[in-house]
Amino acid sequence: MTAKKRTPNLSRQFRGKKKNELRDELAAIYEDDRGDMPDMTSFTRSSGRRARTALIFVAALVLAGAGAIGWWVKAGSGFRETQVELSVEGPERATIGETIAWIVRYRNAQRSALQNVELALRLPQDFVITEFETPPSSEKDLLWQIRELPQGERGMIVVRGRVLGEKGKEVSVRAVLSYTPANFQSEFERVATATTLLEQSPFSLAIEAQDMASTGTEIPMVITIKNISAFSSPAATVTMSPPAGFTITATAPTSTVPAHPRFSIPELAPDATVTIRARGVYPAAPETQNPFAADILIERNGRTYTAEHAEKLISLSQTDLALKLLVNGSADKAATFPGGTLIASVNYGNKSDVALNLPAVPSISLT
Hints:
single chain; 5-stranded mixed beta sheet; 4-stranded antiparallel beta sheet; 2 helices; 11% helix; disordered N terminus
């Protein structure tokens, strides 16, 4: 038996309609205001704006989904950056040259291990390291490769050394702990810092000299340096800075730069002292009077720090040197005959309120 061919299932809207009726219905739908019909024999794709907009929208949905998935993975893993603990401890105050300790503590409070763990330290420029309780993997870079830190494990690194710097300034240390959580494949860092104030100097510095002087007279001075700390003081340099118009005539020990003397001071034991003697003069009264100054400097790696400073103001007094010339007993006129003898004498006295050190006996010249 031959199968009967089935008629296509056309839309009920057009089934049984004549051609003229179909044309009228299509015209009612597509005809414009001028009675024109669009060319339905070919179709042109619309501009790509809609496609691009749809693509951007889909991409945004994908990225948002990825972020949500990442957050879900991080939250679901129990990872919290705050549960990786890092701290740096050190003294709040110190004396220049004192040996102090920086203590770095770290702890993994996560529920999983930390991998690729490294700890790096950044110490003050002129911190002189004397001891590592735990030697670093790289002493040059001050880097400790801890590698893996299991759940709940902790560690500590102690660095000891002498701290140098400017009196009254702060020095700081910085620790950086980098790691990768075992259940979250990204690298993270924890940073901790600490500061120490260089509050005191290991030295005392004093300048002894008379309070008043006169021009032309030598002024003796004594400069005393003492180690007042409980440890050996670092090697240092003592400098003198005379005021304008003041000339240093001699020092003991001698200096290779007489105008601005410098003296090297070795390490001093506690309570040890060094004395420097100097002499100077004001050849003439300066316009302004400034103090005589001295400094103790610590020099290291091309940097200079002032450990102590002292000043001494020496005031100039108004001198009053009285001179009186007598010839044959007369201060006004002296009479004599040819070939006679003249007897001259000079009386001089100090009428000022300071002592005068005359360089020589006044000379007499008769013309």
